[in-house]
Amino acid sequence: xxxxxxxxxxxxxxxxxxxxxxxxxxxxxxxxxxxxxxxxxxxxxxxxxxxxxxxxxxxxxxxxxxxxxxxxxxxxxxxxxxxxxxxxxxxxxxxxxxxxxxxxxxxxxxxxxxxxxxxxxxxxxxxxxxxxxxxxxxxxxxxxxxxxxxxxxxxxxxxxxxxxxxxxxxxxxxxxxxxxxxxxxxxxxxxxxxxxxxxxxxxxxxxxxxxxxxxxxxxxxxxxxxxxxxxxxxxxxxxxxxxxxxxxxxxxxxxxxxxxxxxxxxxxxxxxxxxxxxxxxxxxxxxxxxxxxxxxxxxxxxxxxxxxxxxxxxxxxxxxxxxxxxxxxxxxxxxxxxxxxxxxxxxxxxxxxxxxxxxxxxxxxxxxxxxxxxxxxxxxxxxxxxxxxxxxxxxxxxxxxxxxxxxxxxxxxxxxxxxxxxxxxxxxxxxxxxxxxxxxxxxxxxxxxxxxxxxxxxxxxxxxxxxxxxxxxxxxxxxxx
Length: 481
Description:
- By secondary structure, this protein is an all-alpha fold.
- Helix content is 79%, strand content 0%.
- It has helices spanning 6-41, 45-73, 75-94, 99-113, 117-127, 131-162, 172-186, 200-219, 225-245, 262-292, 297-303, 305-325, 328-348, 354-380, 388-418, 423-451, 455-468.
- The longest helix has 36 residues, at 6-41.
- The radius of gyration is 21 Å and the shape is globular.
């Protein structure tokens, strides 16, 4: 891809951020609408989990395929196809007649979404070749998540209270169409110098692994063990199949050699942990604010601002810190803040007091704001630029898988604790194990941030890059710190 002017690079970044905005906004808006959807569609707790997890599950399953396909046939082409499919899926979601149809149309949305974020990140990585400039661009990218978290609950609450939950999908239409037209005009086409061949067996194993694992977790509270156990066996068999089959391929869907890099492996687990915490946090908070406190959707959205605003403010600061000092400090801040927030809820029942509820939301927002930029930067740093799409897709897959598992596990714990009681009567005690799960996730971010961002870890990244593409080792994405 030819070197672009500074102004053109900023425009490409803005276009890519538009795609992130609609995908991220969709999740935050949907969380505020869950109680209204539950009442209108007569959905159970597991039904609510599926409206979120059907989307994130398909995303997680297809992101790596989208990343490698974009590297092969052209990133601009795949990105534009994703915008079209996502926009059409949004229209279908707004017309869904029942819960089953909504879940199916959410999966259509996810097919389009899988072609957006990892491909956009690959475009950014290949547009911003200077490590410091790229880190700042990723910080802006992370700030868009904060914007979606700040605007999503408010916009969603206003739409749900005034028009109805179906209107939350309408906001994707103008943004998606504008991004499509701007991409056609201003984003240059790029692809990897050497195309990677498709890996249908690996893709099928990934879908079976993620799907069976998520289904088993969500349905466990309401399904006999003998019905769930085979799904766990299927998940283990799919995992074993990936570990045996993928190393034998010359160009696998998941190049397991990536995980010899300590920063890459650490970024993958950190992404799973951080986004599992986010998924569980939003799920518990939304149900508590509306079903226990009795707030309207708009009032619940206002209560989410203490979490959303710090995320928005801290994301660009995290990007600058990664660009100048490396990923360790942002990861340590993120892990400490998220762990402390979880402890407030798990040990001190923070939701029962306005002061502690506010403090818990602020701390979680600070932690999540700092965690995004170092995840992405660490995942692609040191990797051959020709495989930037695949590396970024693995990082994005980890995010979506984490959010899927967070909603599945925390929702299953909550459903088991609530049982046949009402949320108002049983929520605080039923949610406590879920909050402790979030504490563990925050502690994992803290520990791995300290371990995988040192000199030893960077050495493993350099050696991994040499093993991956000896001929291209001099053209790797620059590492920071």
